[in-house]
Amino acid sequence: MSETQYFDEMWGHDETLRQPYRQFHDWLHRENPADLRAKQREAEELFRLTGITFNVYGRTEAEERLIPFDIIPRIISAPEWTKLSRGIEQRVRAINAFLHDIYHRQEIIRAGRIPKEMISRNEAFLPHMIGVEPPGGIYTHIVGIDLVRTGPGDFYVLEDNARTPSGVSYMLENRETMLQMFPELFSQNRVQPVQNYPTDLCRSLAACAPPAAGSQPVVAVLTPGIYNSAYFEHAFLADQMGVELVEGHDLRVVDGRVAMRTTQGYQPVDVLYRRVDDDFLDPMNFNPDSQLGVPGIMDVYRAGGITIANAPGTGIADDKAIYSYMPEIVEFYTGERPLLENVPTWRCSDPDDLAHVLENLGDLVVKEVHGSGGYGMLIGPTATKAEIAGFRKKLKARPGNYIAQPTLSLSTVPIFSRQGLAPRHVDLRPFVLVSPEGIRVTPGGLTRVALKKGSLVVNSSQGGGTKDTWVLGD
Amino acid sequence: MRLKIQHSTHYRFDTPVKYGLQQLRKTPKSSPQQQVIRWQTKVKNGRKELEFEDFHHNTTELISFAPGTTELSVISEGEVALNDTHGVIGAHRGPAPLWLYLRETDRTRAKAGARSLLRGIEAAAPTLEGLHALADGIRAAVKYEVGSSHPEWSAEDAIEAGRGVCQDHTHIFLACAREMGAPARYVSGYLMLDDKTVQEAMHAWAEAHIEGLGWVGFDVSNGISPDTRYVRVATGLDYGDASPVSGSRVGGTGETLEVQIDVAQQ
């Protein structure tokens, strides 16, 4: 397979330097490769010092691991970004409208645009959310939209992360590191800032406070604790926002509100940015064995005494089977044509789709409907015969548990390798904040890069790395 | 018919309760078939934190234990006027979509026992007559016996044992009705008995949704549709959703419980 069949974001299809990279390339050309190698090592050292690590599930040895960082930025021009962010905004608006509808009148089902079974048989549908009016009307306060690119103007949405998208701390730390090492590059290139994210997040959350809140809403971050793979991020965000980081046992129901223990006694929390999954959020209403949640928090929520961000039950919007209906969802709620493309998706619950998928397993990517992190998926073109045979069995046993998509020719961006610049496949997760004040897409995001030559899996749990993502000014 | 109801629950613990909550579904709602004239729930050695409507439209109260207490009393009391609608509750109102009531739960999952029971009841169908036939068939196959089952039992457990109480009969009815494609729900409530006014537990029966009629009640244990002696309090997919009390607490070991329910005609 030749490298040029893929679109390279620096060199295009035909080895012509693309506009957004011009200034950066000139600079790179003037730099001494030995200095850059030193900088790359310095970057790694900085990450070790800040302590950004990542727990990998299913591995006992080397429990905490550094996510590799690459110093070559991924650069997006202002017009490219404007187009993208409009599409993201439209999609996020549709997702919120869809969630409100699904937990109320379900007009989209009545209109026949989504089959009833997609919701009624969906494990991600949370009955406890039926009839709830979340404060400010917002369900997904924080969204991460996973995008891939296949050509100059061709972006596809791979996944909508509407539950608890993670990774924003890498976006911030990557920028911090680059700013420390190459300060001159940022003014030269007029890179739009991302550092306001924590301030914006705090403001956005406070704007969704329930009516019971005072003029200065109290925000807190709920973490499952230090053993969670994203604990660093929870602590980091709480620190950057200047709010309390709490665990379930720090909170309890007091005077009809959820309150946190402080040195001055219990203080009501208005907005809880929770990084605990729905099932573990409230042992009285959900999983009774959960030690991570707060008994009764769902009751306080239904009574209107707290904002939970993101709202419980948002998983119904980022379920991979629902994903295949996103073009319909966008049209139904916005009355507009979708600005961003969906990847064509076969739903294995459908017998015709299943037959097609079984016949073409070698060319497709098969994913679990509720899976994440790149686990439990099959990448046909790189899978062994045994892996394909194994998946064939799984598909036949539980077809409704899977969807399949074509393998996309993901764009590449150069990494700084020992042999110089080398193209590697990337994806992009921009972060979106939603409040009654509006939808804000942070100009940048998390670029994940498959460090292995030819690999299409960018997940950090599967050996992916990250890059700083630059959105240039007008 | 007008019923006066008093329901008191008294808990005692060997060791103090450090912290605890209870979710109560003990407040009846007015509907075409019942009119709540007055109703009140009082808590001793605890306090009411909040009140909300759950997704089955049940009035739900959250109460907390007074820290360090070794006793808690919850007393609900009121009067309800009843109209005879021959067990018909009528059109589905929500907020939950009707299809939700086709969802099986752990307690109402139809397995081999329920399927074989259903096959044995020839006239069983998702119609008024067919559901009455189902209720009769369940009563014949699973003997009503006070104290014969465990509160945690599933429909299958009771079918296998061949005995149970109203909760078990209701769970079996729900499993079978849903298996036939009829939306069905659990009802917890009060029943005035002719022979005694003081009772130890609330009653339970089922409701199924029938095309053209809407929700209709079936008291499997008594072999009738609810009349003016029945007060609906809470509904749900099974006992877990509609139970009068569920809770969590820290401390408070060695619980003893005293329940007294008086249902009398005014």
Q: Could you explain how this protein is built, in words?
A:
The complex is a heterodimer of chains A (474) and B (266). Chain A is of the alpha+beta class and 474 residues long. Among the domains of chain A are: 95 residues, Rossmann fold; 64 residues, Dna Ligase, domain 1. Chain A has 16 helices and 23 strands. In chain A, strands 3-23-22-19-18 form a five-stranded mixed beta sheet. In chain A, a hairpin with an 8-residue loop joins strand 1 and strand 2. In chain A, helix 2 packs across helix 6. The longest helix of chain A is centred in the first third of the chain and has 25 residues. Chain B is α+β, with helices and mostly antiparallel strands and 266 residues long. In chain B, strands 1, 2, 3, 4, 5, 10, 14 and 15 form an eight-stranded antiparallel beta sheet that branches. Chain B has a five-stranded antiparallel beta sheet with strand order 6-12-11-9-13. In chain B, strand 7, helix 3 and strand 8 form a beta-alpha-beta unit. Helix content of chain B is 18%, strand content 45%. The model of chain B has no long low-confidence stretch (mean pLDDT 95). Chain B folds into two domains: 102 residues, Sandwich (Immunoglobulin-like), CATH 2.60.40.2250; 155 residues, C8orf32 fold (Roll), CATH 3.10.620.30. At the A-B interface, helix 11 of A face strand 1, strand 3, strand 4 and strand 14 of B.
